[in-house]
Design a protein that fits this description.
CATH superfamily of the domain at 5-275 and 386-404: Aldolase class I
CATH topology of the domain at 5-275 and 386-404: TIM Barrel
Shape: globular
Order of helices and strands: EEEHEHHHEHEHEHEEHEHEHEEHHH
Helix content: 25-40%
CATH class of the domain at 5-275 and 386-404: Alpha Beta
CATH architecture of the domain at 5-275 and 386-404: Alpha-Beta Barrel
Length: 421
Amino acid sequence: MSARLDDFRLTLGSSEYVPIMVGGMGVDISTAELALEACRLGGIGHISDAMAPFVSDRYFSTKYTKAKSLKNRASRDGIDKTSVRFDYEQLYEAQRRYVAHTMERKRGPGAIHINVMEKLQMGAPSETLSTRLKAALDGGIDGVTLSAGLHNGSLKLMKDNPRFHEVKIGIIVSSLRALKIFLRSGKRLDRKPDYVIVEGPLAGGHLGFGEDWQEYHLKDIVKEIIDFVREENLDIAVIPAGGVFTGTDAVEMMQLGAGGVQVATRFTVTEECGLPKKVKQAYFEATEDMVDVSSVSATGYLMRLLKNSPALGSNIKPQCEPLGYTLDKTGNCPYITAWDNTPVDEAGKKLPVTDKICICYHFSKHNVWTCGHYVYRLKDTSHQLPDGSYQLLTAEHVFNDYLYSTDHKISLPKQELAASA
Protein backbone atom coordinates (compact mmCIF):
# COMPACT_ATOMS: atom_id res chain seq x y z
CA MET A 1 0.00 0.00 0.00
CA SER A 2 1.32 3.44 -0.94
CA ALA A 3 2.33 5.75 1.88
CA ARG A 4 -0.05 8.54 2.81
CA LEU A 5 0.72 11.86 4.47
CA ASP A 6 -1.40 10.73 7.42
CA ASP A 7 1.28 8.10 8.13
CA PHE A 8 3.52 10.91 9.41
CA ARG A 9 3.38 13.50 12.19
CA LEU A 10 5.00 16.89 12.69
CA THR A 11 6.75 17.32 16.04
CA LEU A 12 7.53 20.78 17.38
CA GLY A 13 9.01 20.53 20.84
CA SER A 14 6.58 18.53 22.96
CA SER A 15 3.67 19.10 20.54
CA GLU A 16 2.60 16.78 17.73
CA TYR A 17 0.48 17.77 14.72
CA VAL A 18 -0.83 16.47 11.45
CA PRO A 19 2.08 17.44 9.12
CA ILE A 20 0.20 20.14 7.19
CA MET A 21 0.78 23.87 7.55
CA VAL A 22 -1.49 26.20 5.61
CA GLY A 23 0.59 29.22 4.61
CA GLY A 24 -0.12 32.75 5.80
CA MET A 25 -1.31 34.52 2.64
CA GLY A 26 -1.97 38.24 2.98
CA VAL A 27 -3.79 40.54 2.92
CA ASP A 28 -6.35 38.38 4.76
CA ILE A 29 -6.32 35.70 2.06
CA SER A 30 -5.46 33.18 4.74
CA THR A 31 -8.36 34.26 6.91
CA ALA A 32 -8.81 33.37 10.54
CA GLU A 33 -11.53 30.97 9.38
CA LEU A 34 -9.08 29.11 7.14
CA ALA A 35 -6.46 28.94 9.88
CA LEU A 36 -9.02 27.79 12.43
CA GLU A 37 -10.18 24.99 10.15
CA ALA A 38 -6.60 23.73 9.70
CA CYS A 39 -6.22 23.83 13.46
CA ARG A 40 -9.48 21.95 14.04
CA LEU A 41 -8.27 19.21 11.72
CA GLY A 42 -5.03 18.80 13.66
CA GLY A 43 -2.66 20.81 11.47
CA ILE A 44 -1.25 24.31 11.73
CA GLY A 45 -3.06 27.26 10.19
CA HIS A 46 -1.49 30.65 9.55
CA ILE A 47 -2.99 34.09 9.67
CA SER A 48 -1.01 36.97 8.18
CA ASP A 49 -0.11 40.20 9.91
CA ALA A 50 0.09 42.07 6.60
CA MET A 51 -1.75 45.39 7.02
CA ALA A 52 -3.25 44.47 10.40
CA PRO A 53 -4.82 47.91 11.02
CA PHE A 54 -6.62 47.74 7.66
CA VAL A 55 -7.80 44.18 8.40
CA SER A 56 -8.97 45.27 11.86
CA ASP A 57 -11.04 48.04 10.29
CA ARG A 58 -12.67 45.48 8.01
CA TYR A 59 -13.65 43.08 10.79
CA PHE A 60 -14.09 45.20 13.89
CA SER A 61 -15.22 48.56 12.45
CA THR A 62 -12.19 50.32 13.90
CA LYS A 63 -10.95 53.49 12.19
CA TYR A 64 -7.18 53.02 12.22
CA THR A 65 -6.72 53.59 8.48
CA LYS A 66 -8.81 56.76 8.48
CA ALA A 67 -7.01 58.07 11.57
CA LYS A 68 -3.62 57.48 9.94
CA SER A 69 -4.76 59.24 6.77
CA LEU A 70 -5.95 62.29 8.73
CA LYS A 71 -2.79 62.38 10.84
CA ASN A 72 -0.58 62.42 7.74
CA ARG A 73 -2.75 64.50 5.41
CA ALA A 74 -0.13 67.26 5.04
CA SER A 75 1.90 65.07 2.68
CA ARG A 76 -0.90 63.70 0.49
CA ASP A 77 -0.38 66.09 -2.43
CA GLY A 78 3.38 65.58 -2.75
CA ILE A 79 5.83 62.73 -3.15
CA ASP A 80 7.83 63.51 0.00
CA LYS A 81 6.57 60.96 2.54
CA THR A 82 9.28 61.33 5.18
CA SER A 83 6.72 62.54 7.74
CA VAL A 84 4.30 59.62 7.28
CA ARG A 85 4.21 57.50 10.43
CA PHE A 86 2.05 54.87 12.09
CA ASP A 87 0.63 55.32 15.56
CA TYR A 88 2.35 52.51 17.49
CA GLU A 89 -0.39 52.19 20.09
CA GLN A 90 -3.02 51.74 17.40
CA LEU A 91 -0.78 49.32 15.48
CA TYR A 92 -0.31 47.26 18.63
CA GLU A 93 -4.00 47.20 19.45
CA ALA A 94 -5.00 46.27 15.87
CA GLN A 95 -2.58 43.34 15.80
CA ARG A 96 -3.32 42.14 19.34
CA ARG A 97 -7.07 42.31 18.83
CA TYR A 98 -7.00 40.37 15.57
CA VAL A 99 -4.79 37.67 17.07
CA ALA A 100 -6.76 37.42 20.32
CA HIS A 101 -10.09 37.24 18.49
CA THR A 102 -8.73 34.37 16.40
CA MET A 103 -7.27 32.51 19.37
CA GLU A 104 -10.51 32.81 21.36
CA ARG A 105 -12.22 30.73 18.66
CA LYS A 106 -9.53 28.07 18.46
CA ARG A 107 -10.79 24.48 18.55
CA GLY A 108 -9.16 21.12 17.95
CA PRO A 109 -5.70 19.64 18.45
CA GLY A 110 -3.81 21.86 16.01
CA ALA A 111 -2.23 25.30 16.29
CA ILE A 112 -2.53 28.85 14.95
CA HIS A 113 0.59 30.69 13.81
CA ILE A 114 1.06 34.15 12.36
CA ASN A 115 3.21 35.08 9.36
CA VAL A 116 5.20 38.26 10.05
CA MET A 117 6.96 39.98 7.13
CA GLU A 118 10.17 41.90 7.79
CA LYS A 119 9.79 43.72 4.46
CA LEU A 120 6.76 45.62 5.75
CA GLN A 121 8.99 48.50 6.89
CA MET A 122 6.12 50.90 7.58
CA GLY A 123 8.35 53.99 7.80
CA ALA A 124 10.12 52.76 10.94
CA PRO A 125 11.28 49.16 10.38
CA SER A 126 12.49 48.19 13.85
CA GLU A 127 9.80 50.01 15.81
CA THR A 128 6.86 48.73 13.80
CA LEU A 129 8.18 45.17 13.64
CA SER A 130 8.75 45.19 17.39
CA THR A 131 5.19 46.41 17.93
CA ARG A 132 3.70 43.73 15.68
CA LEU A 133 5.69 40.92 17.27
CA LYS A 134 4.85 42.01 20.81
CA ALA A 135 1.16 42.29 19.94
CA ALA A 136 1.09 38.82 18.39
CA LEU A 137 2.69 37.28 21.48
CA ASP A 138 0.44 39.20 23.85
CA GLY A 139 -2.57 38.14 21.79
CA GLY A 140 -1.79 34.51 22.59
CA ILE A 141 -0.58 33.24 19.21
CA ASP A 142 0.78 29.67 19.23
CA GLY A 143 3.61 30.36 16.81
CA VAL A 144 5.37 33.11 14.84
CA THR A 145 6.68 32.49 11.33
CA LEU A 146 9.22 35.12 10.30
CA SER A 147 9.10 35.79 6.56
CA ALA A 148 10.27 38.14 3.79
CA GLY A 149 13.71 38.92 5.17
CA LEU A 150 16.69 37.56 7.09
CA HIS A 151 15.25 38.71 10.46
CA ASN A 152 18.67 39.28 12.01
CA GLY A 153 17.18 41.39 14.79
CA SER A 154 13.71 39.91 15.16
CA LEU A 155 14.52 37.51 18.01
CA LYS A 156 16.09 40.37 19.93
CA LEU A 157 12.87 42.34 19.53
CA MET A 158 10.96 39.49 21.22
CA LYS A 159 13.46 38.43 23.89
CA ASP A 160 11.95 40.44 26.74
CA ASN A 161 8.45 39.12 26.19
CA PRO A 162 7.47 36.51 28.81
CA ARG A 163 6.35 34.14 26.03
CA PHE A 164 9.67 34.28 24.14
CA HIS A 165 10.67 30.73 25.07
CA GLU A 166 7.11 29.40 25.06
CA VAL A 167 5.84 30.40 21.61
CA LYS A 168 6.94 28.33 18.60
CA ILE A 169 9.21 30.34 16.29
CA GLY A 170 10.01 29.57 12.67
CA ILE A 171 11.83 31.26 9.81
CA ILE A 172 11.15 31.08 6.08
CA VAL A 173 14.32 30.67 4.00
CA SER A 174 15.18 29.75 0.46
CA SER A 175 18.77 28.69 1.09
CA LEU A 176 20.99 27.12 3.72
CA ARG A 177 22.99 30.34 3.83
CA ALA A 178 19.93 32.31 4.99
CA LEU A 179 19.23 29.74 7.70
CA LYS A 180 22.80 29.93 8.99
CA ILE A 181 22.54 33.72 9.27
CA PHE A 182 19.37 33.41 11.35
CA LEU A 183 20.85 30.68 13.54
CA ARG A 184 23.74 32.99 14.44
CA SER A 185 21.30 35.60 15.76
CA GLY A 186 19.47 32.89 17.70
CA LYS A 187 22.66 31.57 19.26
CA ARG A 188 23.36 34.96 20.82
CA LEU A 189 20.00 34.79 22.59
CA ASP A 190 19.99 31.04 23.33
CA ARG A 191 16.89 30.66 21.17
CA LYS A 192 16.99 28.44 18.11
CA PRO A 193 13.96 28.21 15.82
CA ASP A 194 11.51 25.35 16.32
CA TYR A 195 11.06 24.97 12.57
CA VAL A 196 12.35 26.26 9.27
CA ILE A 197 10.09 26.58 6.24
CA VAL A 198 12.12 25.99 3.10
CA GLU A 199 10.35 27.90 0.35
CA GLY A 200 11.31 26.82 -3.15
CA PRO A 201 11.21 28.72 -6.46
CA LEU A 202 7.70 27.51 -7.39
CA ALA A 203 6.04 29.18 -4.40
CA GLY A 204 3.40 31.86 -4.66
CA GLY A 205 3.77 35.53 -3.86
CA HIS A 206 7.17 36.98 -3.01
CA LEU A 207 10.17 34.76 -3.74
CA GLY A 208 13.55 34.50 -2.07
CA PHE A 209 15.32 34.05 -5.42
CA GLY A 210 16.75 36.25 -8.15
CA GLU A 211 16.15 36.17 -11.88
CA ASP A 212 17.89 32.78 -11.97
CA TRP A 213 15.11 31.17 -9.91
CA GLN A 214 14.57 28.46 -12.53
CA GLU A 215 18.01 27.03 -11.79
CA TYR A 216 16.94 25.98 -8.27
CA HIS A 217 14.87 23.01 -7.14
CA LEU A 218 13.01 22.63 -3.86
CA LYS A 219 14.12 19.05 -3.19
CA ASP A 220 17.78 19.97 -3.60
CA ILE A 221 17.51 22.82 -1.09
CA VAL A 222 15.49 20.70 1.32
CA LYS A 223 18.05 17.86 1.19
CA GLU A 224 20.89 20.29 1.87
CA ILE A 225 19.13 21.82 4.88
CA ILE A 226 18.03 18.46 6.30
CA ASP A 227 21.61 17.19 6.05
CA PHE A 228 22.89 20.31 7.82
CA VAL A 229 20.31 20.06 10.62
CA ARG A 230 21.22 16.41 11.18
CA GLU A 231 24.97 17.06 11.10
CA GLU A 232 24.61 19.85 13.65
CA ASN A 233 22.24 17.73 15.78
CA LEU A 234 19.64 20.49 15.76
CA ASP A 235 16.08 19.80 16.89
CA ILE A 236 14.52 21.87 14.10
CA ALA A 237 11.69 20.63 11.89
CA VAL A 238 12.32 21.22 8.19
CA ILE A 239 9.12 22.10 6.32
CA PRO A 240 9.22 22.34 2.50
CA ALA A 241 6.91 24.75 0.68
CA GLY A 242 6.25 25.77 -2.90
CA GLY A 243 5.01 23.31 -5.50
CA VAL A 244 3.65 20.71 -3.05
CA PHE A 245 0.42 20.18 -4.98
CA THR A 246 -0.62 16.62 -4.10
CA GLY A 247 -0.51 14.40 -1.05
CA THR A 248 2.08 12.31 -2.87
CA ASP A 249 4.28 15.39 -3.34
CA ALA A 250 4.05 15.86 0.42
CA VAL A 251 4.87 12.20 1.15
CA GLU A 252 7.97 12.44 -1.04
CA MET A 253 9.15 15.36 1.09
CA MET A 254 8.46 13.45 4.31
CA GLN A 255 10.47 10.49 3.00
CA LEU A 256 13.42 12.86 2.52
CA GLY A 257 13.25 13.61 6.24
CA ALA A 258 10.99 16.68 6.29
CA GLY A 259 8.95 17.31 9.41
CA GLY A 260 5.87 18.51 7.52
CA VAL A 261 4.88 20.55 4.48
CA GLN A 262 3.46 24.02 3.99
CA VAL A 263 0.79 24.42 1.31
CA ALA A 264 -1.29 27.37 0.16
CA THR A 265 -2.31 27.59 -3.52
CA ARG A 266 -4.86 24.78 -3.35
CA PHE A 267 -6.58 26.58 -0.45
CA THR A 268 -7.09 29.79 -2.46
CA VAL A 269 -10.23 28.30 -4.03
CA THR A 270 -11.83 27.22 -0.76
CA GLU A 271 -14.88 28.79 0.81
CA GLU A 272 -12.82 29.84 3.84
CA CYS A 273 -10.23 31.74 1.78
CA GLY A 274 -10.52 35.54 1.90
CA LEU A 275 -10.33 36.15 -1.86
CA PRO A 276 -13.51 37.40 -3.54
CA LYS A 277 -15.40 34.70 -5.46
CA LYS A 278 -14.57 36.28 -8.83
CA VAL A 279 -10.86 36.05 -8.02
CA LYS A 280 -11.20 32.40 -7.00
CA GLN A 281 -12.80 31.76 -10.39
CA ALA A 282 -9.88 33.55 -12.08
CA TYR A 283 -7.54 31.13 -10.32
CA PHE A 284 -9.57 28.17 -11.54
CA GLU A 285 -9.48 29.54 -15.09
CA ALA A 286 -5.73 30.24 -15.12
CA THR A 287 -3.56 28.56 -17.72
CA GLU A 288 0.15 27.88 -17.45
CA ASP A 289 1.07 30.70 -19.81
CA MET A 290 -0.73 33.20 -17.56
CA VAL A 291 1.68 32.62 -14.66
CA ASP A 292 4.47 35.19 -14.43
CA VAL A 293 7.42 35.94 -12.17
CA SER A 294 7.70 39.71 -12.09
CA SER A 295 9.74 42.49 -10.48
CA VAL A 296 6.74 44.82 -10.01
CA SER A 297 6.61 44.50 -6.22
CA ALA A 298 7.78 47.53 -4.26
CA THR A 299 9.47 45.20 -1.75
CA GLY A 300 12.36 44.48 -4.10
CA TYR A 301 11.52 40.77 -4.23
CA LEU A 302 10.38 38.96 -7.33
CA MET A 303 6.73 37.97 -7.15
CA ARG A 304 4.76 35.19 -8.85
CA LEU A 305 1.33 36.32 -9.99
CA LEU A 306 -1.18 36.01 -12.82
CA LYS A 307 -0.59 38.22 -15.85
CA ASN A 308 -4.20 39.35 -15.82
CA SER A 309 -3.96 40.79 -12.29
CA PRO A 310 -5.86 44.12 -12.28
CA ALA A 311 -2.99 45.80 -10.43
CA LEU A 312 -0.69 45.57 -13.45
CA GLY A 313 -0.60 48.74 -15.50
CA SER A 314 -2.45 50.74 -12.89
CA ASN A 315 -1.61 54.40 -12.27
CA ILE A 316 -3.11 54.76 -8.81
CA LYS A 317 -1.64 57.64 -6.83
CA PRO A 318 0.61 56.38 -3.98
CA GLN A 319 -1.60 55.54 -0.99
CA CYS A 320 0.94 56.27 1.73
CA GLU A 321 -1.18 58.42 4.02
CA PRO A 322 -3.86 55.79 4.78
CA LEU A 323 -1.60 52.76 4.11
CA GLY A 324 2.15 53.16 3.52
CA TYR A 325 3.24 49.71 4.63
CA THR A 326 6.25 49.53 2.29
CA LEU A 327 7.75 52.93 3.09
CA ASP A 328 11.35 52.64 4.27
CA LYS A 329 12.77 54.65 7.17
CA THR A 330 13.52 57.58 4.89
CA GLY A 331 9.97 57.72 3.57
CA ASN A 332 10.79 56.20 0.20
CA CYS A 333 9.06 53.44 -1.75
CA PRO A 334 10.00 52.27 -5.27
CA TYR A 335 6.40 52.74 -6.41
CA ILE A 336 6.49 56.43 -5.51
CA THR A 337 9.55 56.86 -7.73
CA ALA A 338 8.00 54.84 -10.57
CA TRP A 339 4.73 56.79 -10.33
CA ASP A 340 6.54 60.14 -10.26
CA ASN A 341 8.67 59.22 -13.30
CA THR A 342 5.68 58.09 -15.37
CA PRO A 343 4.59 60.80 -17.85
CA VAL A 344 1.06 62.04 -18.48
CA ASP A 345 -0.89 62.04 -21.73
CA GLU A 346 -2.02 65.10 -23.70
CA ALA A 347 -5.01 65.50 -21.42
CA GLY A 348 -2.77 65.52 -18.34
CA LYS A 349 -3.76 62.04 -17.21
CA LYS A 350 -1.06 59.83 -15.72
CA LEU A 351 -0.11 56.98 -18.06
CA PRO A 352 0.04 53.38 -16.77
CA VAL A 353 2.88 52.74 -14.33
CA THR A 354 4.67 49.69 -15.69
CA ASP A 355 7.74 49.31 -13.45
CA LYS A 356 6.06 48.83 -10.07
CA ILE A 357 2.65 48.50 -8.46
CA CYS A 358 1.30 50.10 -5.30
CA ILE A 359 1.09 46.83 -3.41
CA CYS A 360 -0.51 48.42 -0.33
CA TYR A 361 -3.53 49.65 -2.28
CA HIS A 362 -3.82 46.73 -4.67
CA PHE A 363 -3.39 44.00 -2.06
CA SER A 364 -6.08 45.70 0.01
CA LYS A 365 -8.39 45.46 -3.02
CA HIS A 366 -7.33 41.89 -3.92
CA ASN A 367 -6.03 43.15 -7.27
CA VAL A 368 -2.68 41.32 -7.03
CA TRP A 369 -3.38 37.73 -7.98
CA THR A 370 -0.33 36.05 -6.47
CA CYS A 371 -0.19 32.30 -6.90
CA GLY A 372 1.96 29.23 -6.80
CA HIS A 373 3.39 27.90 -10.06
CA TYR A 374 0.79 25.14 -10.26
CA VAL A 375 -2.22 27.44 -10.03
CA TYR A 376 -3.18 26.30 -13.55
CA ARG A 377 -3.86 22.82 -12.13
CA LEU A 378 -6.60 24.03 -9.79
CA LYS A 379 -9.26 23.35 -12.42
CA ASP A 380 -8.40 19.67 -12.06
CA THR A 381 -9.28 19.72 -8.35
CA SER A 382 -12.96 20.58 -8.75
CA HIS A 383 -16.01 20.39 -11.06
CA GLN A 384 -16.95 22.87 -13.75
CA LEU A 385 -20.60 23.77 -13.32
CA PRO A 386 -23.22 24.24 -16.06
CA ASP A 387 -22.75 28.02 -16.04
CA GLY A 388 -19.02 27.61 -16.75
CA SER A 389 -17.84 28.49 -13.26
CA TYR A 390 -16.06 26.06 -10.96
CA GLN A 391 -17.35 24.65 -7.71
CA LEU A 392 -15.63 26.09 -4.65
CA LEU A 393 -14.07 23.60 -2.28
CA THR A 394 -14.01 23.42 1.49
CA ALA A 395 -10.77 23.67 3.43
CA GLU A 396 -11.60 20.34 5.06
CA HIS A 397 -11.87 18.64 1.66
CA VAL A 398 -8.50 19.97 0.47
CA PHE A 399 -6.84 19.22 3.80
CA ASN A 400 -8.07 15.63 3.79
CA ASP A 401 -7.12 15.14 0.15
CA TYR A 402 -3.53 16.01 1.06
CA LEU A 403 -3.73 13.71 4.05
CA TYR A 404 -5.18 10.57 2.49
CA SER A 405 -4.53 10.64 -1.27
CA THR A 406 -1.97 8.37 -2.98
CA ASP A 407 -0.28 8.08 -6.37
CA HIS A 408 -0.68 11.80 -7.10
CA LYS A 409 -4.45 11.38 -7.32
CA ILE A 410 -6.71 14.28 -6.42
CA SER A 411 -10.11 13.60 -4.88
CA LEU A 412 -12.93 15.70 -6.32
CA PRO A 413 -15.71 16.99 -4.07
CA LYS A 414 -19.31 15.88 -4.23
CA GLN A 415 -20.66 17.66 -7.27
CA GLU A 416 -23.10 20.53 -6.92
CA LEU A 417 -25.80 21.17 -9.51
CA ALA A 418 -25.39 24.94 -9.67
CA ALA A 419 -22.86 27.59 -8.82
CA SER A 420 -22.92 29.06 -5.33
CA ALA A 421 -24.89 32.25 -4.98
